[in-house]
Amino acid sequence: MRMKMKERVKSIWDAITGRTATSAESQQATASEQGSALARLRMDLESSRAEAAKLREEYVRHEQEAAAARQAAAGEAVSGLLRALAPTLSQLATLRHMAEAGREVRAADALKLCGRIEQTLAEHGLERIGEVGAEAAFDPALHQRMSGGDVRDGDPVRVRFVGYRFRGETPVKAMVSRVGSEPGKE
Question: CB of 153 within 8 A of CB of 140?
């Protein structure tokens, strides 16, 4: 008891004089608080890691679902296109069979069916680049020079074979020649 009284007096004296006491009890209390704080931080860290792992798994699952949805949508689009083209392709196959059997097939009938195919593809996003015989300003993203001299951007050209564009891509550029370099024209 005498020791405790002595520590209290020393503690009061240290407080009056502005000194801080670093007793074993206060050091123990500080160490205990630090240990508790460290334990809380470790628990928070583990919780954050678990949450991050869960979010990563969720992200991967969403990406897989989105990829599956894109694939299903693409399959449905192709299926719709094929359903739209099937009757015309059936008629075209019949004309081909007739021609191979030696029966007369009118070119106008075949061209009409080709026009239907192009129309169906246009309804599904295929765009024609140019019209045969039409003049245009040369654009290397849309046109390919057939022959003749050099052609620069913006030079006048004549479309010889149409091209096609689909959803921002150009699978077939229009084949063009420089105006004035056509055969029989000067």
Answer: yes
